[in-house]
């Protein structure tokens, strides 16, 4: 999978799917993002209590379902009893891969760091990826705010591009620079305000790709596109596709 931009516009990834118009991190949201013209989707993963890798952002379902159900303490079947929006259920990562790679689109898998056991989460994801076909894996990249998890994925033999997520408020400029130097990621995933022209040029000079998040304003998307950014992660796929073209 090419990671550096090759067309007239950057790749557009639906942040948790088409989350501006559908329940986040659900099959409905991912399917809608693809229908709206996304080149791929971004999603969040963690382990359910049974060891299955599921797609959900928070450690519990309180925000999306109204029920304080801890994901890591329940099986997939138990999680499936809860409506996480418009009748949707927490999907397995396998189900999302079937959908998205079945349509030859990209998947940006973010490993969540607020999990009971980071290494076990990495192992579960590595096992899942090893079961998937080479064609499926060709369209998947990994990202995380936790460099140790990305390092673990490399040691576990995932063999996929890794991108370091960072922002100004939580990561910080100095800490972020040190972590990136230690990790040497394949790509940079900055909060979009940090994707300046000098920074993008510097990262490209190092051979890295650059995906910015979360870009919902079409004018900002055009600015970043003009700077040569490789990918944009957005809640509003439809608006960005219309602004930047197919």
List keywords for this structure.
246 residues; alpha/beta; 8-stranded parallel barrel; 37% helix
Characterization of the model:
With 246 residues, the chain is of the alpha/beta class. It is 37% helix and 18% strand. It contains eleven helices and nine strands. It has helices spanning 27-35, 62-65, 76-79, 93-102, 118-131, 134-138, 147-155, 173-183, 197-205, 218-226, 237-244; strands at residues 11-15, 40-47, 53-55, 106-111, 140-144, 162-166, 187-190, 209-212, 231-234. An eight-stranded parallel barrel has the order 1-2-4-5-6-7-8-9, surrounded by seven helices. Strand 6 (162-166), helix 8 (173-183) and strand 7 (187-190) form a beta-alpha-beta unit. Helix 5 crosses helix 7. The longest helix is centred in the middle third of the chain and has 14 residues, at 118-131. It starts with 10 loop residues before the first strand and ends with a helix. The mean pLDDT is 97.
Radius of gyration: 17 Å
Query: Order of SSEs, N→C?
Result: EHEEHHHEHHEHEHEHEHEH
Oligomer category: single chain
Return residue spans where pLDDT drops below 50 for at least 5 consecutive residues: none
Question: What separation lies between the terminal Cα atoms?
Answer: 19 Å
Q: What would you call the shape?
A: globular
Q: What about the largest sheet?
A: 8 strands, parallel, barrel
Q: Helix share of residues?
A: 25-40%
